[in-house]
Write a structure and sequence with these properties.
- It is built from six helices and seven strands.
- It is an alpha+beta fold.
- The model has no long low-confidence stretch (mean pLDDT about 95).
- Helix content is about 35%, strand content about 25%.
- The radius of gyration is 15 Å and the shape is globular.
- The strands form two sheets. The protein has a four-stranded antiparallel β-sheet, sandwiched between helices.
Length: about 180
């Protein structure tokens, strides 16, 4: 049974396969503002090697610390990976607080499931498992957003108790209780 864990070097080979899947569907280009897109542009030239991948994993773990330097507009975020043994299924990030941009379109929690693992309930399990973590971070109700045409994500958010607030900038904005 897959579970949420802190980023780990144990899934290196499977992670690389997943990133190849994401890139095959067009992720990682300069117009991709998602976590997968940004990290592909920043780390794909180093994460092929075990040492480079270890640096990437360490950087993800450090991103949760308040004192870690980060670009303007970025906040501390806890990244969790959904894995089973040495298989990587997806990732999730919990942003510790909202900036004006995150309040508008990004939300507290973002997630991605690798293409070959979709439609198996992984996203729902990931979001459901992340809610207590968000609560422990002091988030009573998490803002989770999705594109207006992303029916799968909409169902995931609603299955986890999400209540639709509104639509802004092409995103549906849901508030999900964390306890």
């Amino acid at each position: 049974m897959p579970k949420l864990v802190a980023p780990t070097t144990d899934v290196h080979a499977s992670f690389l396969q997943a990133m190849t899947e994401f890139q095959a569907e067009g992720r990682g280009g300069t117009d991709d503002t998602t976590m997968v897109g940004r990290e592909t542009r920043e780390y794909s030239n180093v994460w092929e090697t075990p040492d480079g991948f270890a640096v990437y994993v360490a950087d993800l773990r450090k991103a949760s610390l308040e004192e870690t330097p980060r670009p303007n507009g970025f906040v501390p975020s806890t990244t969790l990976w959904f894995v089973e043994e040495h298989t990587y299924f997806g990732r999730l990030a919990i942003r510790h607080r909202l900036t004006p941009f995150l309040l508008e379109v990004g939300g507290h929690i973002g997630y991605d499931v690798r293409p070959t693992a979709r439609r198996r309930g992984h996203a729902t399990a990931m979001l459901r498992g992340a809610l207590p973590v968000a609560h422990d971070l002091g988030i009573d109700s998490a803002l989770v957003t999705c594109d207006t045409d992303n029916v799968g994500s909409r169902k995931v958010i609603e299955a986890c108790g999400g209540v639709l607030e509104d639509e802004r900038s092409g995103k549906l904005r849901y508030w999900v209780p964390t306890s």
